[in-house]
């Protein structure tokens, strides 16, 4: 696949340095992968009581991306757990669903993975509550004291660098009823048979979470199953986070969940979604217009 390109950079005040949001949105609409680079000092962001002022450069992978109204981009880290740098992990197992918007606005949803109250001396970290963390600004705190607190905040990193790897080719687009708009099932199955990686863009996946702008959610697929007589391809999506669509994209109380999808080229989407407050899973189904992408090695 192609190399990574810095298509947008913001300074610590979130002003544009180079690139454009239009270029970022266009790349993500083509199925491009997203990584974001930032930089900060250890004793400004990790441990404000420390005398260590070492510069840390961070690179984050955003396995799920959103494009809203074809003009606003956001990404969510779906595979991250809390860490205590530089030695190990945090005190309580949870998922750290960090969310970054194209303007540098940030959010996090943090569902705990352990039963019962936190251990003595352990409490969920709330961005902006440390008075010594001068670069952090808390905008909104939701559901504190529950199993799934979420926060909307700004942190003034030294820079924000949005990198994309634009190495995908759209081979099939269909309506929610499975009617082909462009490309073909044959092109998709040929690429899958050749061992190519697959990604999908799902139209209005989060509409049932609340009213909001039109949007497309992009996620990688894992195993794919081609039913050769039925003429349908089924793909199991990697874990994703669904968020009530807003601009900017942020977590809202009872307005998000996470889980897994089973995609079909006839428009049917099977869902196994987890309520982050209870960790209870529920199965459901919906229909969506979907675009299917394969890596350019095909």
Structure explained in plain terms:
There is one protein chain. The radius of gyration is 20 Å and the shape is globular. It is 7% helix and 48% strand. The model has no long low-confidence stretch (mean pLDDT 94). The strands form 3 sheets. The chain has a 16-stranded antiparallel sheet that branches. Strands 2-1-13-3-4 form a 5-stranded antiparallel sheet. Strands 7-8 form a two-stranded antiparallel ribbon. The protein folds into 2 domains: 4-163, no CATH class; 167-295, no CATH class. It is mainly β and 298 residues long. It has 3 helices and 23 strands. The protein has helices at residues 21-29, 42-45, 185-193, and strands at 4-11, 16-19, 33-41, 55-62, 64-68, 72-76, 83-84, 88-89, 97-101, 106-109, 136-142, 150-155, 159-165, 168-174, 180-183, 198-203, 215-227, 232-237, 240-243, 256-264, 268-275, 280-287, 290-295. A hairpin with a 7-residue loop joins strand 11 and strand 12.
Keywords:
mainly beta, five-stranded antiparallel β-sheet, 16-stranded antiparallel β-sheet, 3 helices, 2 domains, 298 residues
